[in-house]
Amino acid sequence: MTSAGRGLYLRRMKVDGTPYRTIWLGADGTTVQVIDQTLLPHQFVVRDWRTMEDAERGIRTMIVRGAPLIGAAAAYGMALAMARDDSDAMLTQAYTTLMASRPTAVNLRWALDDLRNLLAPLPHAKRADAAYRRAAEICDEDAEICRRIGENGLGLIRKLKPKGDRINALTHCNAGWLATVDWGTALAPIYQAHNAGIPIHVWVDETRPRNQGASLTAWELAKHGVPHTVIADNAGGHLMQRGQVDFCITGTDRTTRRGDVCNKIGTYLKALAAHDNGIPFYVGLPYPSIDWTIEDGAAIPIEERHASEVSRIAGRTASGEVVTVDVLPEGSPAANPAFDVTPARLVTALITERGVCPASEAGLLSLYPEQSQAA
């Protein structure tokens, strides 16, 4: 593996003083290493992926999650496949297998299409190196995209007039650096505001059923020193009514060309509450998360995950042991739709790497005019 396949590794986020990205190449230049997010916040464990199947399993079981990170992981999954077998048959098999791992996040399809289009015309012997190089580029591009989202969102935060001595943000699920390669989407403006000395505080929705807010967002905010408070999912509207929220900001797994936003289940309810209380509702949006082929959010496939995510929960006991327990009555069924769609009319603005725009087709095309021919 050449050095071009290793990426720039410009890490911004730190864990106990050590800089990390969410995905990177190991010392051997072929093994992919990732943070196992299913074990956070109680355990920090790095997993090794040596095969395409490892990558597929990691995406499907949410060892890695978050739309931008899923795309980067899929790209490295293709590289792992080519390192083992650079044939046309394996290229097709890897594409199909990885595409089926998660249905909602459009970044997965974007990355796989990118890799397949790059690799298919190449001589077989050049495919593995090209795949590793492109996967590293996707990671570096994602980090830069998120940094720019942070800069553009910071501009909006600077314009806010807080009701008290601090700016209160509310976020749902995890759209920080753990959901991307670095920086994050929704949290990137918050990190940049904090770094700039702006007194910002974050209300962190617990985000049932997987508790990505309580387990992941709170963990990474704490590691970066950002003031925050974890709240029950149903507390957000109450805080908005009491004037304790200055703006809401979330990420997105897929956004339609007219600005409908698909994100973690419960996002729609937060947007409704924000709209009712006249509070800005922003969405951090990297361009690979835009699905230009879909206009109506109702057409987005919504992943239905296993009921055990609702019926069981993991936690740490007083002795430090991490255990999983049942929380429902025996025999009670559970449904687990993983995402919902927030209509564009409830979104104040989309914050992208190219700037801020209204949540509309015209707004998105003003930033991405090259997509107008596909309209």
TrEMBL record:
<keyword id="KW-0028">Amino-acid biosynthesis</keyword>
<dbReference type="InterPro" id="IPR011559">
    <property type="entry name" value="Initiation_fac_2B_a/b/d"/>
</dbReference>
<dbReference type="InterPro" id="IPR005251">
    <property type="entry name" value="IF-M1Pi"/>
</dbReference>
<keyword id="KW-0486">Methionine biosynthesis</keyword>
<feature type="binding site">
    <location>
        <position position="102"/>
    </location>
    <ligand>
        <name>substrate</name>
    </ligand>
</feature>
<dbReference type="InterPro" id="IPR042529">
    <property type="entry name" value="IF_2B-like_C"/>
</dbReference>
<dbReference type="Pfam" id="PF01008">
    <property type="entry name" value="IF-2B"/>
</dbReference>
<keyword id="KW-0413">Isomerase</keyword>
<dbReference type="GO" id="GO:0046523">
    <property type="term" value="F:S-methyl-5-thioribose-1-phosphate isomerase activity"/>
</dbReference>
<dbReference type="InterPro" id="IPR037171">
    <property type="entry name" value="NagB/RpiA_transferase-like"/>
</dbReference>
<dbReference type="InterPro" id="IPR000649">
    <property type="entry name" value="IF-2B-related"/>
</dbReference>
<feature type="binding site">
    <location>
        <begin position="263"/>
        <end position="264"/>
    </location>
    <ligand>
        <name>substrate</name>
    </ligand>
</feature>
<feature type="binding site">
    <location>
        <position position="212"/>
    </location>
    <ligand>
        <name>substrate</name>
    </ligand>
</feature>
<feature type="active site" description="Proton donor">
    <location>
        <position position="253"/>
    </location>
</feature>
<dbReference type="InterPro" id="IPR027363">
    <property type="entry name" value="M1Pi_N"/>
</dbReference>
<feature type="binding site">
    <location>
        <begin position="65"/>
        <end position="67"/>
    </location>
    <ligand>
        <name>substrate</name>
    </ligand>
</feature>
<feature type="site" description="Transition state stabilizer">
    <location>
        <position position="173"/>
    </location>
</feature>
<protein>
    <recommendedName>
        <fullName>Methylthioribose-1-phosphate isomerase</fullName>
        <ecNumber>5.3.1.23</ecNumber>
    </recommendedName>
</protein>
<comment type="pathway">
    <text>Amino-acid biosynthesis; L-methionine biosynthesis via salvage pathway; L-methionine from S-methyl-5-thio-alpha-D-ribose 1-phosphate: step 1/6.</text>
</comment>
<comment type="function">
    <text>Catalyzes the interconversion of methylthioribose-1-phosphate (MTR-1-P) into methylthioribulose-1-phosphate (MTRu-1-P). Also catalyzes the interconversion of 5-deoxyribose 1-phosphate and 5-deoxyribulose 1-phosphate. Part of a bifunctional DHAP-shunt salvage pathway for SAM by-products.</text>
</comment>
<dbReference type="GO" id="GO:0019509">
    <property type="term" value="P:L-methionine salvage from methylthioadenosine"/>
</dbReference>
<comment type="similarity">
    <text>Belongs to the EIF-2B alpha/beta/delta subunits family. MtnA subfamily.</text>
</comment>
